[in-house]
Amino acid sequence: MTATLGRPPVEPATGHAVRLSGVHKSFGQGRDAVTALAGVDLDVAPGEFVCLLGASGCGKTTLLNLIANLDRPSAGEIELTTSRPAVMFQEAALMPWLTAAANVELPLKLAGMGRAERKTRTGELLELVRLSGAGAKRPHELSGGMRQRVALARALASATHTEDGEERPSLLLMDEPFSALDAITRDVLQAELLRIWEATGTAVVFVTHDVREAVRLGQRVVLLSSRPGKVVQQWRVDGLAGQDEVNAVDVINRRLREVISSHAAA
Ligand SMILES: Nc1ncnc2c1ncn2[C@@H]1O[C@H](COP(=O)(O)OP(=O)(O)OP(=O)(O)O)[C@@H](O)[C@H]1O
């Protein structure tokens, strides 16, 4: 079920960047088996920004790992029409011995891009994340927020470059990328991410615990049930502002609490 909060839904682009059909994932065997996901169906349109919301342990990270092809589903299908997705985690996980610029350049180098083109692209990406002046610094010389900006530029480098040079829509998978940052830095980076998303047209699947963050960033918020995870409800939240945004946060928060308490009571 997809509910609309506020203004009518913007028609999503045709086709899909990601299609999950009946995705199951279990870990372990027999009595120790844990079912993390039980039949997830989800489409993400090219260029769409989708936030995945759910209680702790409901399988959000598992789902991102499956989309990123870092793990295989136990059953079901995952179809991507994009270039290889880029993943960004809570911690920037930069190479500490490389400069910020070299970290951003690395995926381009690994993809076989020539030196001159690589340097130009790296410069553009650092400018996009407003770090043009910090390319020569190493990760330990940067603040947490700056490190996440470098990680974002690096993710965009790998998301927007295809090995065969063919133009394909890109996909960015983000697993609570701002949750370790202080509130002010998080707020700034959320705004930056929206600006960059609009500039690049990449599809984004963004995992968060935070309803406010999901409503601020997403065009669509998808709520997963507590473990095992599957989609229980979706809301179109595109372009909400002011009181409409506050109301949407209230509605989704209430539903999230219901989902968590029904699981606790089971
Ligand atoms: N490699 C693994 N082996 C065994 N169990 C796992 C593995 N990965 C995840 N799980 C289990 O699958 C369930 C879902 O985990 P997952 O990390 O996807 O949840 P999550 O929604 O991302 O949690 P959080 O919001 O706390 O980060 C959990 O019960 C977890 O313990």
UniProtKB/TrEMBL annotation:
InterPro entries, A to Z: AAA+_ATPase, ABC_transporter-like_ATP-bd, ABC_transporter-like_CS, ABC_transporter_ATP-bind, P-loop_NTPase
PROSITE patterns tied to this protein: ABC_TRANSPORTER_1 (PS00211), ABC_TRANSPORTER_2 (PS50893)
Residues in the signal sequence: none
GO terms of molecular function: ATP binding
Coiled coil: none
Entry-linked Pfam families: ABC_tran
Keywords attached to this entry: ATP-binding, Nucleotide-binding, Transport
Domain ABC transporter: 18-253
Stored PANTHER family: ALIPHATIC SULFONATES IMPORT ATP-BINDING PROTEIN SSUB (PTHR42788:SF13), TAURINE IMPORT ATP-BINDING PROTEIN-RELATED (PTHR42788)
Protein name stated in the entry: ABC transporter ATP-binding protein
